[in-house]
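Example record

The entry below shows one chain as it appears in the dataset: sequence first, then structure tokens.
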Amino acid sequence: MCALAVWATGCNPTSQYGPLQSQWTGRTGAFIAAKPATSAGVVYVGSWDGYEYAYDEASGALRWRTNLGQTTGLCPETVTAGVTSSPWLEGGAAYLGGGDSNWYALDVASGAVRWSIGLGDNSTTGGLYNWSSPIVYGGHAYVGTSSLCDGPLVQGKVLRVNVTTHQVDTVWKVVADNQVGGTIWTSPVVDPASNTVFVTTGTRPAPSERYAEAIVALDATTLAVKSYWALPLDDPTPDADWGTSPTLFTDSGGRQLVAAINKNGILYAFSRGDLGAGPVWQVRIAEGGGCPNCGDGSASNGAFDGQRLYFAGGRTTIAGKAYKGSVRAIDPATGAIVWELGLPAEVLGALSIANGMLVVPDRLALWVVDPTSGVTLYGNDLGSEIFAAATVADGHLFLGTGDGVVHALAYPASAGAGAARAQAPGASAALAADAAGATPQSAGSTFAAPVALAAGPGCTVAGAAPSAAGAIVIDRLAVAPAGQARGTSATVEAYANGSCAGPAIASVALAGGHSTVRVSRGLAVQPGTVVSIAATRAVRLRVRLSGRVADTAASAATGPPPARRTAPPTSLP
């Protein structure tokens, strides 16, 4: 069932070890497109509700949130975006672009604004928006400027900001002062060895604007152009921005190279010291076009693990079969494809390497892939679309989704480590009915599974349905507070997934006593499905699930409710 109905809530994508297990979730007020950042046990992430959030890394408790504003634009429909920029954490400060027209330095402990710099006009007629995430090097932050969705365009710039004096030292303008375009909605990358900042740029307003729709190397001190390569004027791709930030790497011969993907779907690699010499190799990753979140080209930053490059994107064909997305491993020296994996959706978030595994967030699911072979090790349907990149730190994977949820998943130290663990710390092997001494063995047999766990506020994994002759059909859910929680009023909801995402499969209101829900037609839960519990406040619960094992036909015909889908709020620039 899961292999066929990949996008049903509670049905995770097919993978060798199943889904990563949920540890906690946090809810923001809107769509999340920002990559989380972590430091000293805290995870920081922005939301399109206009707030930057700080959560405790281990528990998910909210430390603080700070309003950094929003921008409304015409794309061509009216769109309101908040914080997309991911913070650079250094010296007790979080440096990032706000959802408004400012660039901020926040205090990481309290979220208070230490100082800010205005970048321009973000009104519907001004157009400015902070897509770009900064990088800090040598006491200076490098900040790219862009428009929300080319409506209207702004003049693309790189600002060099002194983080001690809080002043802009130098500005590099991509196009002339009488022009708009050349916007930088990707992020600058620094090569310290050569004191060089690499940027990729967007919309070319006129053929004479040589630094637009280009990859450019700037002197990190003066922002003078060292070298550049622009997409040829005869390239037919509409709105041919460079969709990814530069990726620095070294090939087997010791060459210092840099690579990026244009919206035309082609990955180009260059010598860092001479971009103007042209690509040393190039390879197609996806079909070209002007809209990455419609499946054109790529907006997914690549990764390099010292041996192979990894890049992903939208529509492509592999071995004669069409896919909506893919990820590929590439030989850094030649651009030859080492392996390629077709995916059910385009990849928009950046790739990352952690603990010898490759993290790939496609638009509809999170994948963890073996970087040597392309085999999918773990797969998670998180109940909503994924535009953001994931961050791995301290045994956790953090990722925001389109429904405004921040997910913390257990991330293994190596492939397969902890794969059998199906519940969060403190939860019993809740749904393994053999805990009651009555593991169902055949269709029609009944079971009763007692559960004791602490839940809420937030999401707690209760356990996984046992592997049996068919789906487990739950027809009775009895909940009672335990211990000091007696007398507690709370709402408790159960979900057929590990992240409390999508619609609840059952909801129970506790008002100090026992509560029982009878499921009139029976709820079929597929073998191995993870069930999680969310409560409106912290409670200790005793839960008893009663049901039977369905026959094969019922198992195939009955599934969990469809996943919630969150439509993308805008096209990328």
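Notes for this example: Residues 147 and 153 are 6 Å apart (CA to CA). Residues 552-557 form the longest helix (6 residues).
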